[in-house]
Amino acid sequence: MSTPDEAELCYPHLGNSSCRRIVRSHSVSVLLHIILSSISVLTVTLNLLVIISISHFRKLHTPTNFLLLSLAVSDFSVGFVWVFMIFLIDGCWFLGADWCVFNTVLSYVVPSASIGTVVLISVDRYVAVCDPMHYQTKVTKNRANICIVLCWAGSTVFHTVMLKDNIEHPGGFDSCAGECTVYLPPFAGVIDLIFSFIIPISIIVVLYVRVFMVAVSQAQAMRSHVTVVTLQSSLKVNRSELKAARALGVVVVVFLMCLTPLYIVSLTSGFGVKSFSSYIFVVGLVFFNSLLNPVIYVFLYPWFRKCVKCVFSLQILKSGSSEANIL
C-alpha cells in the first residue's frame, strides 16, 4: 500500500528522482479528461470535413481554398497533439523520452506552418483586393501549392534545427523522471520569436490594414456613387473579394488572439529550459484555435455548410459528385 507521499509521485518506485504529480479530486480529473478528449475529437472531425470538402469538390479548387486546406491540415494535426496534452493533465509524462521529442517537434512545427499559412492568406487577400486586375495571373493554383509546400518544408527544417539539442538528447533536460522538457538555447528562442512571431505578425497586420483601407475607400465610393463606367466590372470583382477578405479577416484576428499570449509568456519568463506542463494554458490556447477555425467556416462560408450536408447524407459517394456546384 502506497503512502500519501508516494501517491503524489509520477513513478513511486523511483522515490525522490520522480517528478511529483498534480493532485486533483477524482471528479475534476474526470471532467478535464472529458473536456480535452472532446476538444481533440471535435478538432480532428471538423477539420477532416474541411479537408474532404476542399479536396473533393472541384469548384473549391482555388488558390484561396488551397490555403484554407493547408490550414485545415495543420489544425487536423493539432487534434492529435491534444491527445499528448491529455497525458500531461496530472503533470506526468509516461510515454518515454522519444515520444516527448516527437510531441515537442510536432507542437512547434504545426503552429509554425499555421502561422506561415495565415501569412500566405494575408498576401492572397492583399493582391485580390488591392490589385484585382492582375490577381488571376499573379495568384495561380500552382503558385499557391508551391508556397504551401515551401511553408511546411521551411517550418519543419527551421524547428528541427531549433530543437536539435532535444532531438539529439531525448530526456536529457528533464530534472526528474516523468517530465517532458523543451529546451531552447537563448539565441534560438530569440530567433524563433523573430521569425515565428514578430516578422509574420507584422506582415499580417500591415497587409490587412491595407486591405481594410481599400475596403473603406471603396465603400465610401459606392455610397457616393463616385464610379467610372470602365471601373464597374473591377468593383464587382472587388465586392466579392472584399467579402472573402472580411471572412478570412475573422480567421486571422482569432488566430492572433490565440497566438499572442504564448509569446508574451515567453518574453516575460525568458527563454531556456521549459517544462511543457508549465506552458499548458497558453499552448492549449494556441491549439484551441484549431477547433475555432472550422467553427468560423460554418458561420461564414455557405459552401462549407453545403459540403457538410453532402458528406453526412453520403451524396459525396455518388458518381460525379465532385463536379457539383456547391458555391
UniProtKB/TrEMBL annotation:
Residues 46-297 form the G-protein coupled receptors family 1 profile domain. It is found in: Cell membrane. GO terms for molecular function: trace-amine receptor activity. Keywords: Cell membrane, G-protein coupled receptor, Membrane, Receptor, Transducer, Transmembrane, Transmembrane helix. It is a multi-pass membrane protein. The keyword Membrane applies. The keyword Transmembrane applies. It comes from the Eukaryota. Its main location: membrane. PROSITE patterns: G_PROTEIN_RECEP_F1_1, G_PROTEIN_RECEP_F1_2. GO terms for cellular component: plasma membrane. It holds the Pfam family 7tm_1. The chain crosses the membrane at residues 30-54, 66-89, 101-123, 144-163, 193-216, 244-264, 276-300. PANTHER family: HISTAMINE RECEPTOR-RELATED G-PROTEIN COUPLED RECEPTOR, TRACE AMINE ASSOCIATED RECEPTOR 19P-RELATED. Belongs to the G-protein coupled receptor 1 family. This is Trace amine-associated receptor 6-like.
